[in-house]
Amino acid sequence: MKAIIGGGGLGGLTAAAALAQRGWDVTVYERQPELRASGSGIYIWENGLRTLEAIGGLAAVLQRPFRGLAFEQRDRDNRVIDPGVLPEAIRLITVPRSDLLLALKGAAERRGVKIRTNAEVTGATARGELFFADGSVEAADLAVGADGIWSKVREALALELVHDQTAEGAHRVIIPGTQSDLGHHGQDKYIENWNGSRRFLITPINDSEIYLALTCLKDDQRGKRLPIDKATWKDSFPHWAHLIDRIEGPITWGVYSTVKVRSWSAGRTALLGDAAHAQPPNLGQGGGMAMQMGLALAVHLEKAHDQRDIPDALLAWEAAERDLVDHCQKWSCLYGEVTYLPDEVRSLVVRSAMANPWIQTQFARAAASTPTGAIMPSADRVRAPALSDS
């Protein structure tokens, strides 16, 4: 059968590769002149790694990733609030977002997926049709709207329940840097510093680059200023002035979105990724959920033998997977609420919460989940998870 996918991002490319693996004729339509990602890094947790493994895209992201052993939170004086040591059974790597996008593109193209650029989707129908800005229409057995937080497919199908933008946003930039720049007590870690309503996230993404996210409220005029006001950020995080001074070139500012829909599909047209369930990046699972759901979509469609079976297969996909996505979205939003606490109260709340096993389980549920369609690990890998493609 034939599938058409609007959006060449993480979810769209994963779904394309997974569908093509299962014999589908797949075309991806991307509105940009080329597939590209902004200058940021991305967290790939265990669930994301296993999704990549299932579609044959893991090896490409393991060329030179950074693997952190802890996600440490610190206060305004750079004192540790929570050491955030990561469990051995849940792998986490970080890479440039562009590396992950290229890995997914390669996995899709090796399976015969066709990628069409300069193709902006402007609408859709429940009959598996996509409409484009140039006036053309494409029809298929299955259409997928993986076209982001402002999804035209979601709008056309009238599936949106909520699209809220958060009160905070972030600057994102990649700078040159190595482990030695993080000091003796900062190596092999991801570090998140808090000061008032500002956050400073330090994410190594390989052996020579560090991804920075500088988060503040959208009414923080100096904090969100472009070009970035280095002085105000160094005042907030003086221990990291040497990293802030390296910020140059392209830098983006944007607020976060939370999207909820009444259904992930209508007829033979589905929504995927941010188009269906955008969430703040607090758990590092926006991309992970998009990829995991893209793989699951293809697995559930294995039961569709012709066009008539597709609507039921899409409903079964959502019934099986939505609880995990909703849980992840809810806890990502909850994490963001500590932004509004006074520093001393925040430190107490974070320290207490992250020491609670039940809360730890809630935060880790998505990362620890087994993606539908994942390759089952060997006994050796269960005992000692390794960064390999086997």
Labels describing this entry:
single chain, 390 residues, alpha/beta, FAD/NAD(P)-binding domain, six-stranded mixed beta sheet, 18 strands, globular
Describe this structure in words.
- By secondary structure, this protein is an alpha/beta fold.
- It has one domain: FAD/NAD(P)-binding domain (3-Layer(bba) Sandwich), CATH 3.50.50.
- It contains 13 helices and 18 strands.
- The strands form 4 sheets. A 7-stranded mixed sheet has the order 5-4-13-14-15-12-16.
- α1 links the parallel β1 and β2.
- α10 packs antiparallel against α12.
- The radius of gyration is 21 Å and the shape is globular.
- The chain starts with a strand and ends in a 7-residue tail after the last helix.
What is CATH's topology name? FAD/NAD(P)-binding domain
The end-to-end distance, rounded to whole angstroms, is 30 Å
Counting structural domains, the number is 1
For the biggest β-sheet, the strand order reads 5-4-13-14-15-12-16
CATH top level label: Alpha Beta
> How would you classify the quaternary structure?
single chain
The CATH homologous superfamily is named: FAD/NAD(P)-binding domain
Helix content percent band = 25-40%
